[in-house]
Structure formats: C-alpha cells, structure tokens
Amino acid sequence: MNAYKLLVVDDSALSRKLLEAAFETEGYVTLAARDGQEAMDILLTEAVDLIVTDILMPNVDGYYLCYKVRHHEKLRGIPIIIYTATYTSLSEEKIAEDMGADLFIRKPAPIHVLVEAVRKLLLEPSRPREVTKNPSISMEVMHQYSSDLVNKLEQRNIALEETRRNLEHTVQERTRELQRSNEELMASNEELQAINEELSTTNDKLVDATLVIHRQAETILVTERRLHEMEMQKSQHLLVKAYEIAKIGYWTYDTEADRAEWNDQTRKIFGVSPAYQPALQSYLALVYPDDQQRVKDDALRAITKGELFNVEHRIIRKDDGSLRWVHVRADFVQNENDARLMLGVIQDVSDRKTFEEVLLEYNQRYEILSRATNDAIWDRDIEHDAEVWNHGIETIFGYADRQISTATEWWKEKIHPEDFERVTLEIGQAFAQLRTNWISQYRYRCADGTYKYVLNRAYIIYQDERPVRMIGSMQDITGQKEFERSITAIARELSELIQHANAPIFGSDRNGYINEWNRVTEELTGYSKNEMLGKNIGLCIRDDHRQEFMLLLERVFKGSPLDNLQLPMMSKDQRDLIFLLNTTPRRNSEQQIMGVLMVGQNITELIEYRVNLEAKVQERTRELNEALRKEKELVEMKSRFVSIASHEFRTPLSTIALATGFLRKHREKISSDDFVKKLATIEKQVDHMTYLLDDILMIGKSDAGKIKTKYTPVDIETFFQQTAREVEESMRTHQVQIFIQCSVKSFAADEKLLRNILINLITNAIKFSPDQKSVMLRVTNSPDFLKVEVKDKGIGITPEDQQNIFSAFHRGANVGTIQGTGLGLSIVKKAVDLLAGQIHLSSQAGDGTSFTVTLPLRV
C-alpha cells in the first residue's frame, strides 16, 4: 500500500518544517504551501489525501481555502483540519465548520494530538461535510468572519493606543518628580562639599602613608595573579582544543534566569546561528517531537532536585531540518554570585547510533543464519583456553552449557579416543604450517554418551606466527557416513561374492560380449578374466550348440529367465565341459534389460558317468540344490549391485551395443579402419566400466585402510606430460594446456596414487566444461612443496555443493545430464590424504573451477 500524501499550509516556515518532520516520521508523504492560493495550485496538480491548514495567511486564508476546496467538484472529498491559534474562540470554530473543515484544533495542542487526528481521519474517513452551494450564504459567513476579525483587530488597536497614552502620562509625571528630587539633592550637595574638602586633606595624608605599602603589595599580587591567569589560560586553551578535537560542545545554563550560553560547537550541532538565543524552551523546541516529553521530564527533575542530567535523544537541526542523535550530560556548579548554574557538554552520536543499529541487525541475522544451517558454531580463545558455542551445541549434541572455560579438557573428553590422536596431530600440523583453514572428520561424544560423526571446519587466526584464536562450525554427518559405509559394503560384498562364489558365474551384454567372468569359471575353462572380458560368449561354446544357445539368449533378453539350461562349452585346452545354468536378465535402474547373468554348476562328470554313478545321484542332487541356493543368493546380490552400478554402466553398454550392431549390420561393407575404430570404441567403454568398478573398489580399500603407499622417484616433466596426454587422447574433446615450472626434476611419490589424482582432476575439468575447448594444468614447486593446479572455465560448483564436494557419491546440483558416479573427487581427496597433501577448491557457479593439490616435496 502507498503512503498517504498530506498537504501542509502555513505561512510560517518553522511551523511547516515541524509539521513536515512530525508527519514524515509517521511514514506520510508531505507537500507544503505558504498560503491558500499556492495550496490550490498544488491540489490541482497533485493527488492529496488530507489538508492541514492555518487560518491567517496572505493572499488566500485558511477559511477561504476550505470554501474553494468544498466547492470544487474534484477536490470536495478531501478531509481538512484547521490547526491554528489566531484569536480563536468558539465562533471561529463555528465558521470553520460552516466553511467545510472536518476538524478544528486550537494551538497550543501538542503535535501528537494533530498526528492522531490525521490518522483517524485517514483510517476512518467520515462523509465529506455538506456545504451550502448558495453563494450568498457562503459569502455571508465569510463576511461575518472578516467583520469579527476586523472588530477584534480594531479593539486591540484601541487598547494598545490607550495603553500608549497612559504610559506617556506616567513618564511625564515621573520626570517632574525626578526634577524636584534633583534640585533638593543639589542644595544638600553644597554642604557636603565643604565637609568633603576637610576629609580630602586627611585622606591625602593617609594615601601618602599607604602608597608605599600598596605599591609593594601590588607588585607581589600582580606577579602572582599574572602567573595564575597564565596557568588558567593555558588549561582553558587545552580544554577548548580537546573539545574541538573530540567535536564536543559545551554550554552553561542559569536556572534562575533561564539563560543559556552555547559555544560554537554546540551551535554547530544544533544548526543555529550565533544570533540564536538559547533557553530551556528554545532547546526543547529543537528536540524531536517524540523525545520532547522525556527530555523535558529529565531536565526538570535535574533542575528541581539538583541531579545529574544525562540523556540521549534526537534533534531536528534548525538549518537543514536533518535528524541527528545527541548525548547531553550536565551537572550543577556554584558561580560567583551563588546562583544555580548548570555546566554541560553535548556530542553528536548519530554515527554510533547507526553503528549500534547495524550491529544489532547483524547479530540478529547471524543468529537466524546459524539456526538455519543447524551447525554447531564455536569460537575458541586459545591463549585463555576458553570457548563459546552457539545453540547447535545443545540442539545437535545435547549440551546446555555454551560457555566453556577449559576448552582443551573439553575437547579431550568429547573426541572419540580412537580419533583423538589423529585430530590432535592434524591441528598441530595446521599450526606448524601456519595454515588458516583446518578441516577434519571424527566421532564426537553427545551428552547421552553416544557418538556422532562430525565434519569440523575452522579458521585459524595467528599473532606473531602464534595461533591465538579458532572459529569453526561442526556439522553432523552421521547419516552420510552410514550411507557411505552401506554403499561401499554392498559394492564390496557383491564383488567378492561374484568373484569367490563356489560356482561358475559369467555374463554378457545384449550383444553377447562377456562382461562377467568369476574365479571358478576361470578354473574350469582355463581362460582368465582378462582374456575373456569383451570377447563374444559364442567363442567358448561348442560349434554344434552355438546357434541354439544364442536363440535361447534372445528369450532371456525378452524377459524370460531360463533354469537348468545345459550348456556344452570348450575349455582352453579343448576339453568338453557341460554347465547346468540358471540364466537371468540383467536390468538397469529403469528396468531395461541390458544383458544376462548366468550362474551354474559344472555337471561334466555327472553327464559322463550318469549310467554308472546312480549311487552318487543323490549326493550330486544335494550339491546342485546347494548350488541353486547359492545361485539365488548371488542373484539377489547381483540385483542389489545392478541397482547401484547399472545407471553408470548404461552409457558405455549402450555405446558398445551401437558399435556391435553397426559391425553386425555392415560387416560386409565396413572397411578395416572403421572396424578398428568400432573395436576401439568398444574397448574404450569396457575400460570405462572397469574404471568405474576400480573407483568403487578404491573407495572400499581406502575406508578399510588397505591402501599402502609406495614411494618411488617420479620424473616430473615426463609423468605429468604423459598422463595429461593420455587423458587428452582418451577424451578427444579438449586440449590440455600444460605449464611445468619446477626447479627440481623429480620427487618421491606413490605413482599410482598420483596418477589417480591427476586423471580424475583432468577428466572432471574436461567433462564439466563441455562448451570449452581446453583446460589448464600447471605444476610448480616451492622449497618444501609441489603444487599441481587443474583449472577449467566450465559450469563451476555452487557454494552449497562445495561443502560436500569431496564426499563419496555426492554430485553437484548443476551437473544436469553430465554422467558420473560422484566418486572421482572423493578418491582424489583420499589419495591426497594418503600422500600427506592438501587440496584446495576455488570455484563460482558458471565461472569455472580450480583445484590445487599441494604435496610434500620429497626428493
């Protein structure tokens, strides 16, 4: 809703300013006019909601303004308040009512009464007063008002003339009396003159006698007084200078004479000229209307009771009408005439008030923000071993005490014993390296004795290379940790079950290319997993059964699993094998069939000796049943694994399917170069799927602590050039701009972990900058560290995602259709940690990303 617009009409500039200030403080928009004619000009061009007017003004007075508004077709509905003190009486109120005014408020009614009347008229508008449209009646009212006003002015002039004549008569009488008294005094003066001559002679002698004494005394007194005056002048000069520097005004106020004296700074604060005569009422007139009563009460209490006057309030500067805050302080002193004298100082504190308001708003925003994030925020004074927490210490961990006086002991009790040494070491390393940022994950004890996994980040403040303060936030990541452990355990369990199951397990995609080949299958066939992955499954099936088997697979691809399928196969050494298989479709997350998984049992011996081994049928049956039970368990584990990994396998499998379909359809026409390219595409996608599985296994091994670092010499130029080019050739979409500026040629590192870091960072940079043609790799070193920076100008990372970017399975909200597992940066972080390094992220959404890895320079 728009603010109401008020029109203030008064020929007094001061009255207009006061009314405008009062109304604008209440949120109204004000317009001002000096008389009724100027007001009418404004009303005809501006939309006004209410008029406040004085009566006696030049050109057009308040009554005639009412008359013109009420008889104007478009303006007659505007409420009008007459606010005046012009010889007012009940008859004037009656004239105002006749002219169409809604309210008549007689001064000295307080301004807040007028403000309240305006508010009521605007919120509950009454029906506009009906005024007569008979010009003769209206003019009669105006004539009556003019006659009354002229009569009053004439009566007042007559009274003033009578008073003047009385004063002249009194002055003449008093003059004659003074002349008579003067003649009598002159006669007495002749007698006194004779006596005075005798006294003069005697006095001359006394003067001569005391002259010498006076001269000596005067010399001493003048010297002492001069020294005292010089000291006083010096002190007074220093005091004045101090007041000027501090911009403090000082003043005195004689309470008996109601007279005040202000210095230049005081006048400057109030915006008044040197001619301004300050007194109590004139001082109060400059006080902001809402503060006037409070200031007046405090001033009168100080004057009547002799108490200290100490108050902060707002003023309206007289020169520009601006609003300022001042602090006034005064006390009573006794002057030479033993009168009551107040001595005070005044200072403009508007800047401090503004700062206090901003600080209050900042504190409120900080509290709201801390509650919105639901993080436990802490501030530790290292020197005094004290700590302060926000509400999160209670809402997350259940501790009511936010003020900790023994912070070291507090942390030692709360961090899990198995994590305490590691966390202490990490903090010590941060201090030793003068790092300003510290981050760690560990278990933290709650008030009920349970532990929660937390992510703790802190900013470290140093003084003379000594840590003095840490400010941090602690986030509960228990749910995330449990999810990571669950996913990793499932992936590890599925992989181990498939690989180590006591039954042959193998599978293929829809084109018959093998993508699963476990240990038992290796032992039975003699073909290793590396030999068979990516090969067609028909290569190891006997020729006379190959076509029949491929037809059966088509049924599985249509969603019909096959049980107890006898499959004749050939081993590497050309032995005949017969597997009894259960064949199940493999589906992706959208339930699309992407391949087949076969779990079975070697029944070669059973078939060869069936006639002569009837006694062993039951035993073999039990074995088969056990195998079937294991097969079902493996199928269930397979389904769980597929639900996690199939989404990421879908794209490479689709690519392989397209490539093999193309080869099958155009095998007669395709050139050898195109054939090689298609095979390269298939191999690339197989490598990609292997890379995805390696990522999952890498996470599992890292969490299990099974990765051991093996440091070997690494040639910096060769390693980084070759690895970057490998990624560049693999991706084939971007150029890697390489800048190696190192003063050393080699350093000691785990080459496998280092390669993992570099490949993941460059691959991510290329993948998440699809609209660019290049990414940058920069390698530099300092005496103690090797720094590797990978930078792109891609989609960037939002501030929200940056907090969890190194967490496993976390993907950014802005990645869109760009595929990925969310494991790459988690693997990078774990590899960097294993190499005792640090990784730093700098990114803005839409403006690219820069990752900087800092590793110890072991030569």
TrEMBL record:
<dbReference type="InterPro" id="IPR003594">
    <property type="entry name" value="HATPase_dom"/>
</dbReference>
<feature type="domain" description="PAC">
    <location>
        <begin position="309"/>
        <end position="361"/>
    </location>
</feature>
<feature type="coiled-coil region">
    <location>
        <begin position="610"/>
        <end position="638"/>
    </location>
</feature>
<dbReference type="InterPro" id="IPR036097">
    <property type="entry name" value="HisK_dim/P_sf"/>
</dbReference>
<dbReference type="InterPro" id="IPR001610">
    <property type="entry name" value="PAC"/>
</dbReference>
<dbReference type="InterPro" id="IPR035965">
    <property type="entry name" value="PAS-like_dom_sf"/>
</dbReference>
<keyword id="KW-0175">Coiled coil</keyword>
<dbReference type="InterPro" id="IPR001789">
    <property type="entry name" value="Sig_transdc_resp-reg_receiver"/>
</dbReference>
<dbReference type="Pfam" id="PF00989">
    <property type="entry name" value="PAS"/>
</dbReference>
<dbReference type="Pfam" id="PF00512">
    <property type="entry name" value="HisKA"/>
</dbReference>
<dbReference type="InterPro" id="IPR011006">
    <property type="entry name" value="CheY-like_superfamily"/>
</dbReference>
<dbReference type="InterPro" id="IPR000014">
    <property type="entry name" value="PAS"/>
</dbReference>
<dbReference type="InterPro" id="IPR004358">
    <property type="entry name" value="Sig_transdc_His_kin-like_C"/>
</dbReference>
<dbReference type="InterPro" id="IPR013767">
    <property type="entry name" value="PAS_fold"/>
</dbReference>
<dbReference type="InterPro" id="IPR052162">
    <property type="entry name" value="Sensor_kinase/Photoreceptor"/>
</dbReference>
<dbReference type="Pfam" id="PF00072">
    <property type="entry name" value="Response_reg"/>
</dbReference>
<dbReference type="InterPro" id="IPR003661">
    <property type="entry name" value="HisK_dim/P_dom"/>
</dbReference>
<dbReference type="GO" id="GO:0000155">
    <property type="term" value="F:phosphorelay sensor kinase activity"/>
</dbReference>
<feature type="domain" description="Response regulatory">
    <location>
        <begin position="5"/>
        <end position="122"/>
    </location>
</feature>
<protein>
    <recommendedName>
        <fullName>histidine kinase</fullName>
        <ecNumber>2.7.13.3</ecNumber>
    </recommendedName>
</protein>
<keyword id="KW-0597">Phosphoprotein</keyword>
<keyword id="KW-0418">Kinase</keyword>
<dbReference type="Pfam" id="PF08447">
    <property type="entry name" value="PAS_3"/>
</dbReference>
<dbReference type="Pfam" id="PF02518">
    <property type="entry name" value="HATPase_c"/>
</dbReference>
<dbReference type="InterPro" id="IPR013655">
    <property type="entry name" value="PAS_fold_3"/>
</dbReference>
<feature type="domain" description="PAS">
    <location>
        <begin position="235"/>
        <end position="306"/>
    </location>
</feature>
<dbReference type="InterPro" id="IPR005467">
    <property type="entry name" value="His_kinase_dom"/>
</dbReference>
<feature type="modified residue" description="4-aspartylphosphate">
    <location>
        <position position="54"/>
    </location>
</feature>
<feature type="domain" description="Histidine kinase">
    <location>
        <begin position="644"/>
        <end position="859"/>
    </location>
</feature>
<dbReference type="GO" id="GO:0006355">
    <property type="term" value="P:regulation of DNA-templated transcription"/>
</dbReference>
<feature type="domain" description="PAC">
    <location>
        <begin position="563"/>
        <end position="615"/>
    </location>
</feature>
<dbReference type="InterPro" id="IPR036890">
    <property type="entry name" value="HATPase_C_sf"/>
</dbReference>
<feature type="coiled-coil region">
    <location>
        <begin position="150"/>
        <end position="209"/>
    </location>
</feature>
<feature type="domain" description="PAS">
    <location>
        <begin position="490"/>
        <end position="560"/>
    </location>
</feature>
<keyword id="KW-0808">Transferase</keyword>
<dbReference type="InterPro" id="IPR000700">
    <property type="entry name" value="PAS-assoc_C"/>
</dbReference>
